[in-house]
UniProtKB/TrEMBL annotation:
This is Acyl-[acyl-carrier-protein] hydrolase. It comes from Cucurbita moschata. Keywords: Chloroplast, Fatty acid biosynthesis, Fatty acid metabolism, Hydrolase, Lipid biosynthesis, Lipid metabolism, Plastid, Transit peptide. SUPFAM superfamilies: Thioesterase/thiol ester dehydrase-isomerase (SSF54637). Residues 88-221 form the Acyl-ACP thioesterase N-terminal hotdog domain.
Amino acid sequence: MASIAASYLIPRTRRDLTWGRNSSVVIATAGGSRSALRSVDLVNGKKVNGVHIPGEKKGSLFMEEPHVEGNKPLHDCLLGRFVEENFVYGQTFIIRSYEIGPDKTATMETLMNLLQETALNHVTCSGLAGNDFGATREMSLRKLIWVVTRVHVQVQRYSCWGDVVEIDTWVDAAGKNGMRRDWIIRDYHTREIITRATSTWVIMNRETRRLSKIPDQVREELTPFYLNRIAIPTDKDDSDKIDKLTDETADRIRSGLAPRWNDMDANQHVNNVKYIGWILESVPINVLEDYDLTSMTLEYRRECRQSNLLESLTNTTTAAAASAAIEEPPKNNLQYTHLLRMQPNKAEIVRARTQWNSKPKRY
């Protein structure tokens, strides 16, 4: 498979079209003619101080004409590329103002959304995408979809508004009937790894909502892209079992959480990223204000629909914080166990474990 260098078209007005990164600014006149004004380096429409992106030519114009449906493949509109003999797919993002929290840094939900976006674009640009959300062609023919069973994210540092990050992702087999997907997030300028993540996925029948074995035809699609590499070393991965919380063991319970229609994804269930916000609803406010979420492990148990009413449970597993004699929690390695469940019948949706460190002083 040839290496793909894709660009992103950002129309500003009818008369002004700004092209993808490492491209030229082109003005479309009323008569339809175009003139290249100057060569600039752009990422999602933002100038990036002339930083060269490895494997691409500076100042190159990736798309000679505006994208017209049917004339260009979909990946021509995506800002991403394959590296390492097409085993790794990378995509670049700018942290937007609406993706930051009260402390002006990206949130865990933002990171998870970017990881998910990169994964979906990986499938699309590989040429495997079928008609369903993230499914391959053979999966679509068999009415199969991917569902995530586990995600573990480790954050070294959260990016700020306007920062540029680069995400690399790849896949590998996980047992006989699963797939593992890993990610690494780097600071675009310094190349520092700021986040690592790993996940496990299985196949579900879209109509029966039952798990399925991976058909041989689907396995044949995926195998050429498998890369035997892990983003998080085994000795640092959070693989311990997450204990189930109950009304008796939980410190805090937040009830009456209701999914909205906009929380649903294209597979007709609540998007897995939405669970994070509900899980954090039962975390003490002083922890949310004064601590950074440095590690999060999610174990998905069942689907959630728009009609379900949810409860969020949290319990501290840090001995010092659990002691009533301690007025303030420790400054580092504060750990919580969480459960998101159906409110009427107490059926489990997600178990989670989080670790927190005190936020550095920002002047």
